[in-house]
């Protein structure tokens, strides 16, 4: 488009039309910088990256709770192993329920509660108990409630030696629930769509104006003072404008790629991997701590 306008100015226009063209170029060049592109785009990208990083930090790792369970709920018998494993499994179930609400990849993998039973995240009895709770809201908190009930039962059975240990385990579970709950909050209150549209429209309008404002013109001697603008070097290809375009549009594309990290693009979070990985931790990290093993 730039080359077409340049050829039109050089070869096709009459002297009067060239004067009008030069006036338009001078106007676009003079007032293009009044568009606060750097401020708008910089603030928007900063907001998107801050949200993206906070989502990554709160994606949910069960390791601290699992390791504390292995230390605070000792024993090699079936009951002790069941307590440790089920507590972590309930945490992973809470995470999966939240991910299913915010991630299309997890929603495709677990479209119904029956698929959660098939994957081993929930038993048939737990599914019945889950469905029996009637609520107009999401029931993501319910598995966390189950894990805390298990820990209280373990304390009553004497498997947790101190109330301090029990409180520490409660805090670890609540921290995990708070992390995945923050992800749900980010999904509930996204960046306003109109803000995204305004920023993207501003970038496109800026470079649309630059198509005219960066044109090389050769005004007559009596018009040079009137225009107060002329290109010192005749660059048939606007190299600096192209570099600026790459930087600004690339900046915008970075924000566009990070805007929704729970999609199905290659650069999005591998949330299905997180579920599988935390389930594996449920199997291995809840073994009793023994020296030399």
Automatic annotation (TrEMBL):
Entry keywords, A to Z: Cell membrane, Chloride, Chloride channel, Ion channel, Ion transport, Membrane, Transmembrane, Transmembrane helix, Transport
Subcellular location: Cell membrane; Membrane
Organism: Plectus sambesii
Protein name per its UniProtKB record: Bestrophin homolog
Transmembrane helix as UniProt keyword: yes
Chief localisation class: membrane
Bilayer topology term: Multi-pass membrane protein
GO MF terms held by the record: chloride channel activity
Transmembrane segments: 193-212, 233-251
Recorded family membership: Belongs to the anion channel-forming bestrophin (TC 1.A.46) family. Calcium-sensitive chloride channel subfamily.
Pfam family, any one: Bestrophin
Function: Forms chloride channels.
GO cellular component: chloride channel complex; plasma membrane
């Amino acid at each position: 488009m730039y080359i077409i306008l340049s050829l039109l100015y050089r070869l096709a226009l009459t002297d009067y039309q060239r004067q009008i063209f030069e006036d338009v170029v001078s106007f676009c060049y003079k007032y293009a910088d009044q568009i606060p592109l750097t401020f708008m785009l910089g603030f928007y990208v900063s907001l998107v990256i801050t949200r993206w990083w906070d989502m990554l930090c709160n994606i949910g790792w069960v390791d601290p709770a699992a390791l504390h369970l292995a230390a605070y709920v000792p024993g090699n018998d079936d009951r002790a192993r069941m307590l440790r494993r089920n507590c972590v499994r309930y945490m992973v179930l809470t995470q999966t329920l939240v991910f299913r609400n915010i991630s299309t990849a997890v929603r495709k993998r677990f479209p119904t509660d029956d698929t959660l039973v098939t994957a081993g995240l929930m038993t048939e009895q737990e599914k019945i108990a889950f469905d029996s709770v009637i609520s107009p809201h999401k029931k993501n908190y319910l598995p966390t409630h189950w894990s805390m009930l298990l820990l209280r039962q373990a304390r009553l059975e004497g498997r947790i030696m101190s109330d301090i240990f029990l409180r520490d385990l409660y805090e670890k579970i609540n921290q995990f629930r708070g992390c995945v709950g923050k992800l749900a909050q980010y999904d509930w209150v996204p960046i306003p769509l109109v803000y995204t549209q305004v920023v993207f429209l501003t970038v496109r309008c800026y470079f649309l104006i630059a198509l005219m404002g960066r044109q090389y013109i050769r005004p007559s001697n009596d018009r040079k003072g009137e225009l107060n603008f002329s290109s010192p070097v005749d660059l048939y290809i606007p190299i600096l404008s192209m570099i600026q375009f790459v930087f600004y549009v690339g900046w915008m594309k970075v924000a566009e790629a990070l805007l929704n990290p729970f999609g199905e693009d290659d650069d999005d979070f591998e949330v299905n991997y997180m579920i599988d990985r935390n389930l594996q931790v449920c199997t291995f990290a809840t073994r009793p701590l023994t020296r030399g093993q």
